[in-house]
Amino acid sequence: MKKNIFIILPFKESLNPNKSGAVSIYIKDFLKYSKYKNNIKLVSSDDFTNSKIFRNRNYINEFCNKYKNTDISIIEIHNRPEYVNILRKNFPNSKIILTYHNDPLNLRGSNSESEREKLLKDCYKIIFISKWIKNRFFIHLRSNIRNNYEIIYHGVLKKKKN
Description:
By secondary structure, this protein is an alpha/beta fold. It has a single domain, classed as Glycogen Phosphorylase B (Rossmann fold, 3-Layer(aba) Sandwich), CATH 3.40.50.2000. The protein has helices spanning 22-33, 56-67, 83-90, 113-122, 131-138, and strands at 5-8, 40-43, 74-78, 95-100, 125-128, 149-151. The chain has a 6-stranded parallel β-sheet with strand order 2-1-3-4-5-6. Helix 3 (83-90) links the parallel strand 3 (74-78) and strand 4 (95-100).
């Protein structure tokens, strides 16, 4: 099956159990139960060997270079709004989903009102893991007319085994 959904972990996150952070642990657990798991390519800094990538901009540029000829339907990123501009330029036909796990006002790329309004335009969907995080994102914005955001609380409902 074709992998046309890419989840890009923050560059400091690893899939190595000894180096995993909260986001990578959450994503790995989530993927176990996703009906789309066979379509998903999970990307982390573990996928790149270039030591220069250990900065956000280099990491996302390395991703763009590696997958520039790949038809990606959905790109999901977590806690890195600064990636959106670069991804939008390199993958103009991909749907970008940005998930916030932390205060948007403390993350590069969503500090200012204009940055957050641009994110609302550039992202297919913005997901917040709590109402508080959503409210922080919309603080002082002129409007939240767009409906391309929602709250999805952490947690996975596991199927009961018979």
